[in-house]
Design brief:
The complex is a heterodimer of chains A (260) and B (330). Chain A has a single domain (2-84, 157-259), classed as Rossmann fold (3-Layer(aba) Sandwich), CATH 3.40.50.300. Chain A is built from 9 helices and 13 strands. Chain A has helices at 40-47, 70-76, 92-98, 112-124, 140-153, 170-187, 198-204, 222-225, 228-235; strands at residues 2-11, 14-20, 23-24, 29-33, 55-60, 63-64, 77-80, 158-162, 190-194, 207-212, 215-220, 238-244, 249-255. Chain B has one domain: ABC transporter involved in vitamin B12 uptake, BtuC. Chain B has 330 residues and is an all-alpha fold. Chain B is globular and about 65 Å long. In chain B, α4 packs across α5, α4 packs parallel to α6 and α5 runs antiparallel to α11 (230-252). Classes of the chains: A alpha/beta (260), B mainly alpha (330).
Chain lengths: 260, 330
């Protein structure tokens, strides 16, 4: 779906990310992990055209992303950045309707099909009962689901999310991740995201890229990628790995070396 | 949802009724009182020649100009508030007041014989200043905060130039008063012809782009994700706002209050969905301006007050009342 080739990104000519080669496969959940400041959010920005590359290229289905119009990309990729805002009095349904923006003609009128997609997005995210609520009357978890519903209404093949679990309590974190996993399995939505919690990344991802100091250290299936030496190298922690019988993946418990 | 839409449509109808009533009142009231029925008959026939003349040559153009000035300033303000994501934004922020002010001062003080050039000069000064501020704020695109700061700096600079002129030509300040406060005294058809194309074109532009403004309100990154070229959209909106405000200022002088407060009154009444907020701002801008201009003419008749004073005297308390009544919206 998306490939990056020798991608370098930065702000004001200072490179934050260097020579990144990623391959985001169709129908998969891909997660980028790494310590604070490693450049993972910057990579997401590069892939979602919020930041122009200094060197290298981003390819969307073999076409350079810089050669596509923003509107065409918007029909293929939905993004949910961390920096976003909404007028406090906007209703959930109106927010989700804006997800249809790239599909509308110049008059911006929603047709029957758009309305059906909005209802579908409400239903998928379990927000139907909140459709007429104001966004400022929602809890953090509900608001996150509303934003995901907006991205969903865009009807794209890929959704890019920058730390979708930040500021949510554990229950709402799992709710969001299970929602994404469900959308991936039942709707065939490809997902690229940044996560902080490594165990959540292992459990919910098909593919993980580990970044450190602006470079990609390794990438692949979760149990192949995350091991003791990688964790030591990138996060400066030691870790023990245990099998998680319920989710058929590994579970890790990390500790700082001097306390081990 | 339907009831919600209905409510907003009802508010819009109410706002436009308010405008129509204000307009009739504005035409009927004055040194010579004309009843509503006479207004209508005088518009559609010229039997009563005195009334017909007063209405057609004096009251009608002046009230229409008031309406357009109100529309332009309010639309400009509400557009800038959206684009800058800043509730304090008004046409002054992109240098309209300082640019028009300095240009008008130069004409009025240095070249008093050419005072008929004040409107054209103010218009050009306003647009040039907007262009200057936009260029100065440009650095791989224009961020709202950089634009606001550049605007403040440039306005301070031009303000210094105005003060410089005032210091050296204290005897000529009196003539500049009416422009600085803003007023519509003696405005008639030529002024109307100067402003209406801008109201029509830029106003239509705003209305057509209202849904794009809604998307822009979600932040630059979300808007980009929705396929909007944020930089270009912002530039279009700023150009529209600049033309709206510059044409208004060139006709009416520096009316400060309309561009800031009318959008907020509209927002408090109808919410921040620009598909409704834009029409509401148009109706309120026109209605409030016509009403205030009428009061300004009547209050100390035959002495006319500059409408800017009435605007602030009536509008500010009403606005404070709205803020306190409507909790949660501001």
């Amino acid at each position: 779906m998306i490939k990056t080739q020798g991608l370098s990104l930065g702000y004001h000519h200072t490179k934050v990310v260097q020579n990144v080669d990623l391959h985001i496969e169709k129908g998969k959940i891909t997660t980028i992990v790494g310590p604070n400041g490693c450049g993972k959010s910057t990579v997401l920005k590069g892939i979602s055209r919020l930041l122009d590359p200094i060197e290298g290229n981003v390819f969307l289905e073999d076409q350079r992303i810089g050669e596509l119009t923003s509107k065409r990309i918007a029909k293929k990729i939905a993004i949910l950045p961390q920096i976003r805002r909404a007028p406090e009095d906007i209703r959930v349904r109106d927010l989700i309707a804006l997800g249809r923006y790239p599909h509308l003609n110049w008059r911006g009128k929603l047709n029957q099909k758009d309305q059906e997609i909005i209802e579908w997005a409400l239903d998928k995210t379990a927000m139907t009962n909140y459709a007429d609520r104001r966004i400022d009357q929602l809890s953090g978890g509900e608001a996150q689901r509303a934003w995901i519903a907006m991205a969903l209404a865009q009807k794209t093949e890929l959704m890019i999310l920058d730390e979708p679990t930040t500021f949510l309590d554990l229950s709402h974190q799992l709710e969001v991740l299970e929602l994404l996993s469900e959308l991936n399995q039942n709707e065939g939505l490809s997902i690229l995201m940044v996560l902080h919690d490594l165990n959540q990344a292992i459990r919910f991802s098909d593919q993980i890229y580990v970044m450190n100091k602006g470079r990609v250290i390794c990438g692949g299936k979760p149990d192949q990628v995350l091991n003791e030496s990688i964790l030591q190298q990138t996060f400066s922690v030691n870790a023990d790995f245990y099998p998680d019988q319920r989710h058929h993946c590994q579970h890790m418990i990390a500790y700082k070396s001097h306390m081990g | 949802m339907n009831s919600k839409v209905d409510r907003r449509i009802k508010i819009l109808i109410g706002i436009f009724l308010f405008f129509v009533v204000s307009l009739f009142w504005g035409i009927a009231k004055g040194s010579l009182e004309i009843s509503a029925r006479e207004v209508i008959s005088a518009i559609f026939s010229d039997e009563n020649r005195v009334h017909h003349n007063i209405i057609f040559n004096v009251r009608l153009p002046r009230n229409l100009i008031a309406a357009l000035v109100g529309i332009n300033l309010a639309l400009s303000g509400v557009t800038l508030q959206g684009v800058m994501n800043n509730p304090l934004a008004d046409p002054g922020i992109i240098g309209i007041s300082s640019g028009a002010g300095l240009a008008a001062f130069i004409v009025m003080i240095l070249f008093p014989d050419y005072s008929y050039l004040v409107p054209v000069g103010a218009f050009a000064g306003a647009l040039l200043t907007t262009f200057l501020i936009y260029s100065l704020a440009w650095k791989n695109g224009v961020s709202p905060i950089r634009l606001i700061l550049a605007g403040m700096a440039v306005s301070a600079l031009l303000g210094a130039a105005i003060n410089f002129l005032m210091t050296f030509y204290p005897d000529r300040i009196a003539g500049t008063m009416s422009f600085m406060v803003g007023g519509l005294s003696g405005r008639t058809w030529p002024d109307f012809r100067m402003i209406w194309p801008y109201s029509l074109i830029a106003g239509t532009g705003c209305l057509l782009m209202s849904y794009r403004m809604n998307a822009l309100l979600l932040g630059d990154e979300v808007a980009t994700g929705l396929g909007i070229s944020v930089e270009r959209t912002r530039r279009i909106f700023i150009v529209l706002a600049a033309f709206l405000a510059a044409s208004a200022v060139s006709v009416a002088g520096l009316l400060g209050f309309v561009g800031l407060i009318v959008p907020h009154i509209a927002r408090l009444l109808i919410g921040s969905d620009y598909r409704y907020l834009y029409p509401a701002t148009i109706g309120l801008g026109a209605g409030i301006m016509v009403l205030c201009d009428c009061i300004a003419r009547l209050l100390f008749d035959p002495v006319e007050l500059p409408v800017g004073i009435i605007m602030a005297l009536l509008g500010a308390p009403f606005f404070l009342y709205l803020i306190r009544e409507r909790k949660g919206s501001l």
